[in-house]
UniProtKB/TrEMBL annotation:
Pfam families: GDPD_2. This is Altered inheritance of mitochondria protein 6. InterPro entries: AIM6_PI-PLC-like_dom (IPR039559), HAT_RTT109-like (IPR051236), PLC-like_Pdiesterase_TIM-brl (IPR017946), TAT_signal (IPR006311). It comes from the Bacteria. One of its GO terms (molecular function) is phosphoric diester hydrolase activity. It comes from Streptomyces parvulus. PROSITE patterns: TAT (PS51318). GO terms for biological process: lipid metabolic process. Coiled coil: none annotated.
């Protein structure tokens, strides 16, 4: 509870400072020079919007994936973790879509100037999924040039790939579309089913519901085999793997879990600690 309160305080302070100096959307461009360390595509900013500078802090730390929770409120997509934190000024468009568009425009079609791979924008729906997705789809179409799209059986790469998570009612309207600018975040139950990677490119699940190990002591052999089987099955189908609820307090236990995830080929490591994961991946020469 104390950590959450501190995060909210930092977010409020960051927003206040940003408002005081009236930073334009183009500020997103300042986080990367012409040369520098390569992006960390494995790094996923969990609850990215709780940092003082949503999106921008993650880009400064070279993250390859960011997460935004959204609520549909009177036709607007507002970004927050809990309903009591909703603020009409903190929209998906103002915090993510417009800054990303400005950055990609300045970088000639890329989020990171020296790498063509797509940034993942994981959108976690907190209100009823079908209605919220339809509004999300409308907004993504306004930025159609920015996003990886699916059209009549083909995936067309873009600078940003939107993946829809959260309320599962979003799945039906997405599956019904012949063209879309978002993809679906599957669960382990989707692994090995008929759902193709062109619809479910990402398999995510709760670590604590599938593994007992929390980084203390040896990783049980059976659990290590299960983890590697999950990753192998997903990769064989062109899907990526992410777990949430992994240990995220700095120390040996977190490092031990991250080390096993990297060794198994897990594609995204969840964290609220941007600098901590950046340092870990740099030390492991990971991308």
């Amino acid at each position: 509870m104390a950590l959450t309160t501190r995060r909210r305080a930092l977010t409020t302070l960051g927003a206040a400072l940003a408002g005081a100096v009236a930073l334009p959307a183009g500020t997103a461009l300042a986080s990367e020079g012409g040369r520098g360390p390569r992006p960390l595509w494995r790094a996923h900013a969990h609850n990215d919007y709780e940092h003082p500078r949503p999106l921008l802090d993650a880009l400064d730390h070279r993250f390859g994936s960011v997460e935004a929770d959204i609520y549909l409120v009177e036709g607007q997509l507002l970004v927050a973790h809990d309903p009591e934190d909703l603020d009409p000024s903190r929209t998906l468009e103002s915090l993510y879509l417009a800054p990303l568009a400005a950055r990609v425009r300045a970088h000639h079609g890329r989020v990171y100037r020296r790498d063509r791979r797509a940034l993942q924008l994981l959108v976690d729906i907190k209100t009823e999924g079908a209605a919220t997705y339809l509004e999300l789809d409308r907004q993504l179409r306004r930025y159609g040039h920015l996003f990886t799209s699916y059209a009549h059986g083909r995936v067309l790469p873009g600078a940003v790939t939107a993946v829809v998570s959260g309320d599962r009612a979003a799945r039906a309207p997405m599956e019904a579309q012949r063209t879309r600018r978002a993809f679906y975040d599957g669960r382990l139950a989707d692994l090995g089913t008929s759902a193709p990677a062109s619809f479910v490119p990402l398999i995510s699940d709760n670590w604590t519901l599938n593994f007992t190990w929390q980084g203390v002591g040896a990783f049980p052999d059976a659990e290590r085999r299960r983890l590697r089987s999950i990753v192998g099955t997903a990769h064989a189908r062109g899907q990526r793997v992410r777990f949430w609820a992994t240990p995220d307090i700095a120390g040996p236990a977190r490092d031990a879990v991250w080390t096993e995830l990297v060794a198994a080929g897990v594609d995204h490591l969840n964290t609220d600690d941007l600098a901590g994961l950046e340092a870990f991946l740099d030390a492991h020469r990971d991308a």
